[in-house]
């Protein structure tokens, strides 16, 4: 009986894995985004900052040098429950607004953004679009040009290309960078090419102001980006991914900091899955919308990680404890002419995505440690599953002061 249940569960998750694998083929081709509209949209650039005195100045200076008419955008820094010198740093820059928020009972980026938007709607100037960044980011100077183009073309929610500004700092930061290159090319881009909905990544996001005023933010979970994505898709508003509009994020350099950050993400992911996955799936079935069904399957990914760990633990535990194989493995039943190409393509996805991203050859040497990093998701996911009711937001400290010119020079 147990073996039969295990077999059915393996089939279910194998089908989900094959579906995602099938999507990756549509990420091989990329059509370059054009710039067919002149600058005309105005933007409010919001920077979420909690104790970011060391890095926020570099981002402000970066945003002040955008290749976009300065009169068409303003910079607002949300100084959220700061106890360091963030406010003083922000005020030292002319034309930048330091918006101080003090509410220790509601910590986290989602609450900070929700508060800032209410403040923004009461200001005398109105904006066509709202962009959201993290204080540790760097932004390509043509970012607003591409976002202006998307808003002019009628898109209401747009996610920029997320990259890493410090991939060479440690094996942990390089693993995060590889993960970004993989997701951009083989998760996000296929959905763009197939006309499906893309997913917000927490920063480098742009929204039509009228949509935000109509919907409200309402996303205050530990993964506010995923929560808002689901809210949009339920309303038939499908976020778009702009491959050309690049944002560079600082990633943790120690395993402990990364594990803490990923635990928060997975706790939030389980929370959003529990609340929204089944309603979104049912809505997709009723509406005969594959876009909504695909989104529901994406939201379900937290359980894919959990199931992967549990299945592997049971199968390998059975082998070592019993000295034989009593639990049937689906993959052992595949003919060799199917299993070998299947496994080869799974492993080739990482170097393929790195090749398509044209990264420095030295980073290919980090692939073995990336695989170790990937395995570390399993215990983190199990821990997150049993602590998913934890809503406490944890801050990731950022200290790496890098200028955009440094990042771009290393990519050449």
Features:
alpha/beta, Spore Coat Polysaccharide Biosynthesis Protein SpsA, Chain A, eight-stranded mixed sheet, 15 helices, 52% helix
Radius of gyration from the alpha-carbon trace, in angstroms: 22 Å
Number of helices in the DSSP assignment? 15
CATH class of the domain at 43-254: Alpha Beta
Write the element-wise H/E pattern from the N-terminal end onward.
Answer: HEHEHEHEEHEHEHHEHHHHHHH
Number of extended strands: 8
Secondary-structure arrangement, i.e. CATH architecture of the domain at 43-254: Alpha-Beta Complex
Q: What's the CATH superfamily of the domain at 43-254, by name?
A: Spore Coat Polysaccharide Biosynthesis Protein SpsA, Chain A
State the distance separating the first and last CA atoms.
58 Å
Helix share, percent: 40-55%
Overall outline: globular
Instruction: Output the structural class.
Output: alpha/beta
CATH topology category name of the domain at 43-254: Spore Coat Polysaccharide Biosynthesis Protein SpsA, Chain A
Trace the largest sheet across and list its strands: 3-2-1-4-7-6-8-5
């Amino acid at each position: 009986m147990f073996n039969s249940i295990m077999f059915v569960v393996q089939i279910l998750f194998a089908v989900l894995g094959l579906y995602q694998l099938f999507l990756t083929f549509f990420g091989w081709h990329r059509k370059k985004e054009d710039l067919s509209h002149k600058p005309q949209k105005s933007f409010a650039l919001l920077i979420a900052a909690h104790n970011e005195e060391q890095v926020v100045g570099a981002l402000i200076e970066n945003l002040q040098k955008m290749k976009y008419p300065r009169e068409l955008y303003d910079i607002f820094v949300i100084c959220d429950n700061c106890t360091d010198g963030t406010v003083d740093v922000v005020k030292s820059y002319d034309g930048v607004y330091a918006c101080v928020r003090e509410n220790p009972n509601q910590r986290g980026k989602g609450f900070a953004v929700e508060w800032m938007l209410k403040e923004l709607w009461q200001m005398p100037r109105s904006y066509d679009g709202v962009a959201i960044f993290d204080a540790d980011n760097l932004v390509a100077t043509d970012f607003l040009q591409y976002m202006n183009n998307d808003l002019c073309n009628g898109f209401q929610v747009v996610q920029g290309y997320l990259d890493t500004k410090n991939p060479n700092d440690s094996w942990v930061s390089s693993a995060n960078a590889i993960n970004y290159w993989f997701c951009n090319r083989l998760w996000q881009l296929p959905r763009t090419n197939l006309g499906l909905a893309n997913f917000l990544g927490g920063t480098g996001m742009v929204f039509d102001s009228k949509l935000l005023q109509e919907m409200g933010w309402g996303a205050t979970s530990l993964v506010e980006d995923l929560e808002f994505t689901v809210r949009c898709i339920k309303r038939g508003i499908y976020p778009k991914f702009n491959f050309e509009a690049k944002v560079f994020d600082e990633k943790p350099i120690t395993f402990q900091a990364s594990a803490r950050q990923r635990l928060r993400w997975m706790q939030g992911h389980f929370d959003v899955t529990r609340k929204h996955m089944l309603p979104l799936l049912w809505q997709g079935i009723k509406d005969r919308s594959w876009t909504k069904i695909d989104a529901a399957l994406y939201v379900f990914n937290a359980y894919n990680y959990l199931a992967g760990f549990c299945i592997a633990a049971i199968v390998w535990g059975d082998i070592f404890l019993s000295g034989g194989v009593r639990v049937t493995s689906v993959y052992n039943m595949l003919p060799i002419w199917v299993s070998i190409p299947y496994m080869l393509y799974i492993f080739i996805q990482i170097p393929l995505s790195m090749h398509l991203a044209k990264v420095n050859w030295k980073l290919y040497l980090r692939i073995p440690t990336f695989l170790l990093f990937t395995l570390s998701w399993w215990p983190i996911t199990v821990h997150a599953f049993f602590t998913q009711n934890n809503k406490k937001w944890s801050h990731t400290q950022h200290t790496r002061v890098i200028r955009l010119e440094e990042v771009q020079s290393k990519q050449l």
